[in-house]
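User: Quick sanity check before I run a bigger batch. Here is a single chain. Can you write out its predicted 3D structure?
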Amino acid sequence: MTTAQSTDNTAPAPAAGRHSPVPLAPPRRLLEFILDDEPARVPEGATILDACRAAGKDIPTLCQGDTLTPKNACRVCMVEVEGSRTLVPACSRRAEAGMTVHTDTERARHSRKIVLELLASSVDLSTTPRVAEWLKEYEAKPDRFGPEAARLNEQPKIDNDLYVRDYDKCILCYKCVDACGEQWQNSFAISVAGRGFDARISVEHDAPLTDSACVYCGNCIEVCPTGALSFKSEFDMRAAGTWDESRQAETTTVCAYCGVGCNLTLHVQDNEIVKVTSPHDNPVTHGNLCIKGRFGYQHVQNRD
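Assistant: Done. Predicted structure follows.
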């Protein structure tokens, strides 16, 4: 080996016909702070909610979604940060080195109690996972607002054979708007109409869904936390009293409609597919599907 060769530290050029390796993202440094009087370490950019979950702390949240940018809409995940004048939403507040966070103070618990009472007094939360558990944990009493609490009192909108819109269960978390808009589908078929107590999710000109820009991907159903948007199959089974998630099995497979390779999770009850979702951690779909992947499963169990 020559002297020139021994001192040359430059990387060799890639051989002909070969691609250079894909550069990896630099590792994120760890931040240290105090979480409920215990030291916590999370990667830079992580939220307080990320840190709480990593530490095994159960912080309630409704509007937070693992595939969407936090909207800070439901305000159920509020925590106390020393030095902050107000409570902060754990779902969007980034962890900072040296900060001190308290998740179970009287102030934080009282805030969650009030928010849960306000939501449960004005919205039907009967199909919202874990909300009954949270109402009991925080001793929330929605009935104290009385029968005069504002409710939409609308009948479910059933204008297609794929999914149902039940706005009596909507908490205006905006997750469906984000999933339909610039964060995923870019259809922009739905948005928020009205203000104050009259605010609601709507399509353009409050038209039937069949006359809107909706492409029936069902990605809004995937992110809905309360069941305000649900599969028509699930809606019908709940109405008939036959919906039972404890009897459902989940099987993940690959969609056969095209060559993209989307993963499908089939929810099967009594040997029948009752709905289709997609894993949120799948690098292809991130929980999203098209109309064929989410709703085109009837041929699998066609007995004719």
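Confidence is low (pLDDT under 50) at residues 1-11.

User: Great, the batch can go ahead then.
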